[in-house]
Amino acid sequence: MITETHIVQFDSIALDCGSKLAPVDVAYETYGELNARKNNAVLVLHAFSGDAHAAGTDQSTGAIGWWDSMIGPGKGFDTDKYFVISSNILGGCRGTSGPGSINPETGCPYAMSFPPVTIPDMVRLQKMLTEHLGIERLLAVSGGSMGAMQALQWALAYPDAVAASIPIAGTARHSPQQIAFNEVGRQAIMADLDWNEGDYYGKRPPARGLAVARMVGHITYMSDESMREKFGRRLRDQDQFEVESYLRYRGSQFVDRFDANSYLYITKAMDYFDLTAGRPSLSAAFDGVKSRFLVISFSSDWLYPSYQSLDIVRALRGRNCDVAYCDLPSTYGHDAFLVHVSDQAELVRGFLASTFRERASSEQAVRGRS
After folding, report:
1. pLDDT beyond 70 at 370
2. Which CATH number covers residue 86?
3. What gap in Å lies between CA 150 and CA 90, rounded to an integer?
């Protein structure tokens, strides 16, 4: 499957911080075909470092999509049946407006003058995109990690616009430990003299700080067992363990494709996301939701541990929501939703099929009454 990233521009978007961003670009890709009733659309939502290229082979770079194992003919998100959409988030650096975008008022990159963005802002822009594509109601929204936050926000913010939500390896709000890991990454970037208060575009970027931030993050994505299996205590050469070499490679690779300022903005958006904010409880947050839910976690995930998914499930059941939950056994840690997909794909395939049947039956009943 050869894919191409498209960009659509909107006049403006109102943000939670009170600012208006104008204009705003959105990078997106689609896979499969939208049916005549436009009731088979699925929006996949990427994790922190993802982008619009979720599946297939990029026609210009040859890169494989970040969730290619889950999206395609016969896969979990079966493109023979569903029209799958993926977009880069607001604040990102892969085609959607972010700190590296040009501020039309100055003709220079926004850098740190880019307005603060939130998870709800990201979802608001995704809603604008789906409306642009002529889709009034999505069959499902799904994503892992930060994508799970967006999937939850979709169900809360637009209850009439999404039939099902599939949050995977996610949380309703960050714990102090999760915030702490993000802060270490931010401090690594800002301590790099090349960061220059965010004004480094056209100059030397803060590559060392960003690489260290990615190294710290990558440790949290793996489990102790997966690291033992992958590296053990093997030496790559006389002075370096294999795990050290691997982390340095991951760090340098990340620098080539990600913007340090986007790292700062996106991690802050994740840290401030809190479904309980302004509400008496997490359960109260789900008042008024109409979506079905499939919540998935992984047994070895210590970054987003299973108890956080269970908290979501209990809150949903407290509001008598239609929710299924599965904690999948895995040794891969948080990365399991990207690499351990066989069981996950079966769950998603069955859940989407039943959701589509239920929606089609409901729509047929409505047509019969009209």
Report:
1. no
2. 3.40.50.1820
3. 12
**pLDDT one-digit tens code per residue, 34-76:** 999 999 999 999 999 999 999 999 998 999 999 999 999 999 9
Q: Look at the chain and report how many structural domains it folds into.
A: 2
Task: Give 6's contacts (C-beta < 8 A, 6+ positions apart).
Answer: 27, 28, 29, 30
Domain that holds residue 198: 178-270
Residue 42 to residues 30, 139, 222, 324, 332: CA-CA distances in angstroms? 10, 6, 28, 18, 26
Residues 365 and 353: their CA atoms lie apart, in Å, by 18
Could you give the maximum distance between any two Cα atoms of the chain, in Å?
77
CB under 8 Å to 149, separation ≥6 — which residues?
119, 167, 170, 171, 270, 273
For 158-181, the pLDDT digits (tens) are 999 999 999 999 999 999 999 999
Integer Cα distance of 23 and 277 in angstroms = 29
Tokens 């850098």: give the residue.
111
Instruction: Based on the fold, state whether residues 235 and 281 are members of the same structural domain.
Output: no
Same domain, 70 and 131: yes
pLDDT, tens digit (0-9, with 9 covering 90-100), for 77-103: 999 999 999 999 999 999 999 999 999
Phi, psi of 327 (to 5 degrees): -100, 105
Alpha carbons 79 and 34: distance in angstroms, whole number? 10
Q: What is the full DSSP assignment across 6-67?
A: EEEEES-EE-TTS-EE-SEEEEEEEES---TTS--EEEEE--TT--S--SSEETTT-PBPTT
Would you name the residues annotated as active-site residues? 145, 301, 334
CB-side neighbour CA atoms (13 Å) of 335: 16
**What CA–CA distance (Å, rounded) separates 351 from 66?**
22
- Considering the domain architecture, whether residues 148 and 81 belong to the same structural domain is answered as yes
